[in-house]
Predict the structure of Delta-aminolevulinic acid dehydratase.
Amino acid sequence: MKDLHFKRHRRLRQSASMRSMVRETQLHTDDLIYPIFVTEGTNEKNEVPSMPDVFQFSLDLVDAEVDEVVSLGIPAIIVFGVPNEKDDVGSQAYHDQGIVQKAIRQIKANHPDLTVIADTCLCQFTDHGHCGVIEGGKILNDPTLDLLAKTAVSQAKAGADIIAPSNMMDGFVAAIRHGLDEAGFEDVPIMSYAVKYSSAFYGPFRDAAHSSPKFGDRKTYQMDPANRLEALREAESDMEEGADFLIVKPALSYLDIIREVKDFSGFPIVAYNVSGEYSMVKAASQNGWINEKEIVLEKLTSMKRAGADLILTYHAKDVARWLTTDK
């Protein structure tokens, strides 16, 4: 043995303190964005059946939820609306008294320093559940752009700090950037769902937002999960059109895409740890099959390691508590 020469990598793993000193990737509370679902009515706190510990809140109850988020040090939320009324063009998405607009005004009044992101799409607000205008069973791209721009402007008027369009229409960032600039909101950034796959991981979210399509699917506008180079083309288009952040959605099965988009763009990258990824962990934890804390921290760290700067996750409140406790 005395004549053997080999590297002793274990020297740097001998204690928790030593491992912490050489840790390459750090997960922080500042990295987190927490989704909040707001709904019409009063005294409504409805747990999403497929998403344990995730609720829809009416406006009279949402303040308590936001207060908790702020107390945990989470710097940003994204607001999704669940309206009572839907129509074929999703008019409640861009109504000044729409549920999202009312929620933004209320939240910003109580927490002006909290970064409030508005999800900008039509699917929760259309009676057909698609993200655009329908004609003859076809989702029309260009007429949809006008409605998305109107939605973004109405959300900015309500006080949204960031607009996050999630529809995947061609040219949606350019249309929204133009609309915001024309309305005097040139300083409001766009967090584009630049790379959004047509994924099976979205099922629980559609329960939460009541946004399942009534016919067909979204494969004509969301991306094929088999494609890698297409993600770079989509990201490049959004960069050229004026995006300020790029979202990759889902996250866990697309860590390679997160890394490539980060290296390619140099933009701030947001990993969306989606509902299916969340619910699988919750279900396994409730059955006693896994250690929830260890699994969640490991998977979110993997997203940071892959290149994500921010993580949009339903685990955010738990993660903030765990990070504080560990510290």
